[in-house]
Amino acid sequence: MRLVILASLAALAAACTKETPADPAAPAPSAAQEAPVQVASAPSTEQTINWEAARADFTSKRPADAPATVQTAGQDGPSPVPMLLPSGIVQTASDRPTPPVVTQDGYFATYHLPRYDAIVNGSMKAYTGTGPAAGDKQALKFTTGDGVASLSFSRYGADYLIDFECREIDGPAGCITEVEAKEFAESLFVAQTR
């Protein structure tokens, strides 16, 4: 979901820029001569999901305390990507679990933990940018910002992003270290598949 928002912002920023004429002495075109601005969305590719591998992990790596079914909100039916959720009982501050929300392209689930909120996103669409190639998509990529951290990776052909939004900042490292973020990601299990 956050990838869609970031891609939309990038497309909007690109649409707001205007090229200058090649000859500085040449008059600028009038408003009537200017072509309408078209906003292009960031290019995306729909991923091929390896449902067989997801089903195998659903059967063999499912924690004993995992619920038999996952209640979801949003669109009807299962998530279009394997739903990865953290093991153990993760509940909101009000002790009521927040159900994952299924969208057209994937899902997201929010967990309110003592020092931060963890938002787990899964998407079947990969958005391409203008930067260098991402490299190994299976590798966990950790980034930080002011009061936030993110961990991205691919599994089963789907792209996943975990955002950690800090409630308390524990110093220059923020509210979560790279090691803790990776431990959280490694606790994810296949909670729903097709």
Keywords:
194 residues; alpha+beta; seven-stranded mixed sheet; 11 strands; 18% helix; disordered N terminus
Q: What does this entry show, briefly?
A:
The protein is α+β, with helices and mostly antiparallel strands and 194 residues long. Helices cover 18% and strands 29% of the residues. It has helices at residues 2-16, 51-60, 178-186, and strands at 44-46, 73-74, 83-86, 101-102, 106-112, 116-123, 125-127, 141-145, 148-155, 158-166, 188-192.
**Shape verdict:** globular
Give, in order, the helices and strands.
HEHEEEEEEEEEHE
| Helical percentage | 10-25%
| Helix and strand composition category | alpha+beta
Could you tell me the number of beta strands? Answer: 11
Q: Enumerate the spans where pLDDT stays under 50 for 5 or more consecutive residues.
A: 1-22, 29-42, 89-95, 128-135
| SS field, number of helical segments | 3
| Sheet with the most strands, sense and barrel status | 7 strands, mixed
Strand content range: 25-35%
How big is the Rg?
21 Å
Mean pLDDT: 75
Distance between the termini: 21 Å
Strand order of the main beta sheet, please? 2-4-5-6-10-9-8
Structurally, how many domains make up the residues? 1
List strands and helices in order, with pairings:
Layout: H1 2-16, E1 44-46, H2 51-60, E2 73-74, E3 83-86, E4 101-102, E5 106-112, E6 116-123, E7 125-127, E8 141-145, E9 148-155, E10 158-166, H3 178-186, E11 188-192
Parallel strand pairs: 2-4
Antiparallel strand pairs: 1-7, 3-11, 4-5, 5-6, 6-10, 8-9, 9-10
